[in-house]
Amino acid sequence: MNICVFLSAADLDDRYTVPAREFAELLGRGGHTLVWGGSESGLMKVVADGVQESGGRLVGVSVDFLAAKARTNADEMVIAKDLAERKALLLEKSDAIVIMVGGTGTLDEATEILELKKHGKHTKPVVLLNTAGFYDGLRQQFQRMDDEGFLPVPLTELVFFAKDGVGALAYLEESAGLQ
What we know:
The protein has helices at 14-29, 42-53, 83-92, 104-118, 136-147, 155-158, 165-175, and strands at 2-6, 33-36, 57-63, 76-80, 96-99, 126-129, 160-162. By secondary structure, the protein is α/β, with parallel strands linked by helices. The chain has a seven-stranded parallel sheet, sandwiched between helices. β1 (2-6), α1 and β2 form a beta-alpha-beta unit. The longest helix has 16 residues, at 14-29. The mean pLDDT is 95.
């Protein structure tokens, strides 16, 4: 399965890097392909290293102004002209989406993917990997949107919240009929 992972390119501490590395190794050992922003920095590098060293493939989609930070030994690397094209290519090249910890770029990617799913522009499973409770506040906000009628589709049909990588991958594989 081609699994797109949206995540930070920042250097983060062990409470984020250790679970990210464990999830990456699960992907690689499972024979999955990581589709990601292509960066050789921070958490993006941690995940790419884990997938590649565990036998998985890497498909990167960088953007022209970050091309100098793109991983040179990915199985495939595409350079998009801008962030909008990058997001479209990441979605196109994936069978499922996992949203890991990140900043405004990751949040932008997450909300766009969910908005597209809400409008039926894709039906791919989306998992929000809530490492160390990072997305507790966002989950609460999404639940409020659902409870108060702002979402025309139930929240449970848009996104699955996983506490850890094992739960995230199990949900994706079940959604794809691999279990």
